[in-house]
């Protein structure tokens, strides 16, 4: 084809096509006006690509065009193209149509067009749209590209900007530094290599930005750049969605900046990542990050991330499974709740140095969290409540130097928490608010050494291997230890607050055997007043440790406190019991009284013998044996039955018999306790 029907530019393209030579029309043809010297009709290009030319033996035809202005519609829909389509730095005044086309290499890099239609197309090789500018959507729905799709620095405005639902890319999908003013649809798309969105800027405030629901990526998703590393991070203005997506190798959004004022900034419910999920090192989300039901085979990395959310959780990873660590340590900041309810973490949850802020609610909600490793939060700072209800931690929960602030409510709620190791709230741990560990199970230590709790501390029904305090412990409000079960109580009694709840508290061993008076002062802090169980428990602990005298002191104190609670009429009898026999816990005092009564009775009856019942049969009167017969209820010397006192002696004998029963029984009980322990 030649002659007047072709312009000079078109003729140059026609002549170059059979040999695959490039035609660069950026330099205008001599003698032609600049505006017309680079114009090429779309129908001319279509005829060439469809085979309307004279082939040259030994040459590979191809359209290699640069700097042209293509007029008309380049319509290759449904066509089977055998030749490469390379139109770089060209301007198309109409949308190129390649719907359901089958072609080889397509390279439109640097070109501008009002949209591109390639849905259901097949490209055997590379699809390159680098540095392209499109004023309307680019449509790649259900397209199949056997090579790489390169959208680096592509600029599109439309609604949506890129249709890529059900797109299949056998190698990489590169969107590095792309600018999309509208949604990028990748529903159910599949990428055999990597998906790279580093430096991309996607804006769609009223909806999704990158919509990858059901997306499958075999080589990893890369959308962030660590701080001080070359390149720019992903910027998303709207909802970044990866619901039900499956990403192999890794998913990294380190340094990415996500913002959505109308909903989640990052919505990845049921996301599956066969490796780490990195939301760290400068990652910023203005809006909730949702990982509910996600599966991460490696760690979830949040160090250095900043999450801000108003009214909804800053991070929702409920029902998620993380096979590595959940690392939200140094530099991590969250304004809003972290929700880890029913989450399963095979590694550790690391919150060391994190900053959590939610003044009107829970900063960390981890109900039924399951962690095989440890929860480590050294230096954690939280404004709001941390909830670990029914959570299971295989190793330890470590919170040294943590700062928890919520003066009007709970700082830490861990009802039903199960910890395989230690719950470490030592060495500078500070809570301004209520801590509740009701019904928690701690297999090793509950450490409160160096702890400051400016608010109630509820340890109701907890179970712990040991409970430790020291001279640096400051518990400034009510502590509830009701029905707690402690193996070793390694505390200092004077470090507990003035108000305690101790009913039902049990412990097997006292690590520090303080003076009994200090322990009794500790029991006296019981808010309900006198309760028998705390005294009996303390006495039992002393007895197990062989401290019998201390145990008796405790039981005596129990009786005295109980008597003090009695009506006035009954207190006199109690005072008499205390003064005479120490409620039975002073057997030596009873023996002394027996001896005094024996001496008094012997002297009295020695001066005034009682008359014999049968004078002819009565044995010689012995005042000592007669008094012993009266005082000792079991032993008999034959004197009491032989003599019958009269008058005042009868009353004296009755008093000696009554006193003997009381005092001898007290002495016998004391001897029995002593012999039973030997």
Automatic annotation (TrEMBL):
The chain crosses the membrane at residues 651-672. This is Membrane-associated oxidoreductase. Keywords: Membrane, Transmembrane, Transmembrane helix. It comes from Streptomyces sp. R11. It comes from the Bacteria.
């Amino acid at each position: 084809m030649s002659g007047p029907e072709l312009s000079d530019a078109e003729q140059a393209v026609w002549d170059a096509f059979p040999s695959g030579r490039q035609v660069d029309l950026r330099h205008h043809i001599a003698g032609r006006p600049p505006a017309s010297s680079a114009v090429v009709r779309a129908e001319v290009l279509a005829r060439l690509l469809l085979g309307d030319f004279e082939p040259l033996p030994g040459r590979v035809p191809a359209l290699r065009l640069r700097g042209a202005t293509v007029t008309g519609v380049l319509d290759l829909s449904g066509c089977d193209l055998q030749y490469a389509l390379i139109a770089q730095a060209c301007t198309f005044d109409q949308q190129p149509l390649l719907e359901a086309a089958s072609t080889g290499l397509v390279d439109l890099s640097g070109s501008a067009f009002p949209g591109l239609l390639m849905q259901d197309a097949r490209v055997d090789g590379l699809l390159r749209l680098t540095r392209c500018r499109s004023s309307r959507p680019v449509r790649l729905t259900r397209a199949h590209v056997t090579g790489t799709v390169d959208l680096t620095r592509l600029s599109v405005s439309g609604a949506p900007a890129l249709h890529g639902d059900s797109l299949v890319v056998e190698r990489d999908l590169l969107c590095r530094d792309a600018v999309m003013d509208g949604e990028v649809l990748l529903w159910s798309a599949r990428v055999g290599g990597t998906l790279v969105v580093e430096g991309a800027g996607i804006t769609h405030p009223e909806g999704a930005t990158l919509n990858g629901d059901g997306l499958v990526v075999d080589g990893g998703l890369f959308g962030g750049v660590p701080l001080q590393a070359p390149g720019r991070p992903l910027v998303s203005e709207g909802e970044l969605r990866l619901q039900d997506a499956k990403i192999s190798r890794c998913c990294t959004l380190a340094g990415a900046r996500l913002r959505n004022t109308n909903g989640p900034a990052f919505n990845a419910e049921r996301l599956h990542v066969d490796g780490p999920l990195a939301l760290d090192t400068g990652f910023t989300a203005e809006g909730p990050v949702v990982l509910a039901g996600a599966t991460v085979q490696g760690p979830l990395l949040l160090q250095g991330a900043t999450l801000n959310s108003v009214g909804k959780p800053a991070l929702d990873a409920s029902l998620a499974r993380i096979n590595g660590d959940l690392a939200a340590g140094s530099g991590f900041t969250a304004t809003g709740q972290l929700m880890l309810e029913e989450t399963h973490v095979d590694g550790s949850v690391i919150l060391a140095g994190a900053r959590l802020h939610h003044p009107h609610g829970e900063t960390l909600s981890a109900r039924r969290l399951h962690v095989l490793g440890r929860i480590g939060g050294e230096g954690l700072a939280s404004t709001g409540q941390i909830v670990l209800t029914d959570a299971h931690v295989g190793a330890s929960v470590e919170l040294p130097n943590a700062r928890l602030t919520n003066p009007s409510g709970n700082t830490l709620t861990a009802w039903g928490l199960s910890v395989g190791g230690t719950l470490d709230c030592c060495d500078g741990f500070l809570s301004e608010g209520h801590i509740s560990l009701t019904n928690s199970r701690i297999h090793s230590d509950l450490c409160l050494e160096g702890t400051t709790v400016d608010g109630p501390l509820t340890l109701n029904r907890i179970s712990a291997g040991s409970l430790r305090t020291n001279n640096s412990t400051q518990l400034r409000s009510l502590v509830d230890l009701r029905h707690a079960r402690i193996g070793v109580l390694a505390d200092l009694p004077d470090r507990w607050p003035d108000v305690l709840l101790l009913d039902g508290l049990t412990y097997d061993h006292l690590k520090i055997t303080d003076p009994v008076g200090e322990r009794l002062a500790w029991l006296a802090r019981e808010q309900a007043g006198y309760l028998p169980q705390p005294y009996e428990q303390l006495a039992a602990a002393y007895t197990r440790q062989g401290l019998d005298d201390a145990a008796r002191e405790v039981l005596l104190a129990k009786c005295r406190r109980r008597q003090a609670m009695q009506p006035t009429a009954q207190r006199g009898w109690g005072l008499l019991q205390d003064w005479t026999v120490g409620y039975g816990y002073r057997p030596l005092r009873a023996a002394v009284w027996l001896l005094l009564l024996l001496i008094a009775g012997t002297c009295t009856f020695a001066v005034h013998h009682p008359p014999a019942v049968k004078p002819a049969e009565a044995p010689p009167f012995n005042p000592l044996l007669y008094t012993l017969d009266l005082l000792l209820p079991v032993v008999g010397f034959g004197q009491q039955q032989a003599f019958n006192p009269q008058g005042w002696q009868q009353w004296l004998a009755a008093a000696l018999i009554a006193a003997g029963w009381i005092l001898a029984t007290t002495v016998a009980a004391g001897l029995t306790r002593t012999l039973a322990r030997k």
